[in-house]
Every structure is written in structure tokens, then in C-alpha cells.
Design goal:
mainly alpha
């Protein structure tokens, strides 16, 4: 099944050369896109934190009401 055949001597790149070639393929976002995405992440993080805090307060209040009775 799936035997591999070595065809002569294939030149192997060094690790650093392979790393450099892959690094050149990266497409970096421009500054405007980076700012927009950073703001979006911060706003969504704060919103999610508030939602979790509100749910925690509601659940805690509900459990206290049930246990006190």
C-alpha cells in the first residue's frame, strides 16, 4: 500500500530557509483594519463580561431567595 520511492537526491531546505519563505507569505492587515478589529474585540469582550455579570447576579439572587425561604 502507499510505498514511497526516493527519486535521487532531492535538495532539502534548511529549517530557517523554510521559515523565511513561509514568513514572506503572511499578509499583514493595514493599520486601519487593525484598529477596527481591536475596537470590535474590546467592545465584544466588555459586552460579554457585562452579560455574564448580570446573569450571575440574577442567578445568585434567585438562589438566595429559594434558600432563605
Amino acid at each position: 500500500m502507499g510505498d514511497t520511492v526516493k527519486n535521487g537526491e532531492t535538495p532539502k531546505k534548511s529549517f530557517i530557509e523554510g521559515l523565511r519563505s513561509e514568513y514572506k507569505k503572511i499578509v499583514w492587515p493595514d493599520q486601519d483594519t487593525l484598529k477596527k478589529q481591536t475596537v470590535a474585540v474590546l467592545i465584544s469582550s466588555v459586552a460579554l463580561g457585562l452579560i455574564i455579570a448580570i446573569l450571575d447576579f440574577i442567578i445568585k439572587f434567585g438562589i438566595d431567595r429559594v434558600l432563605i425561604r
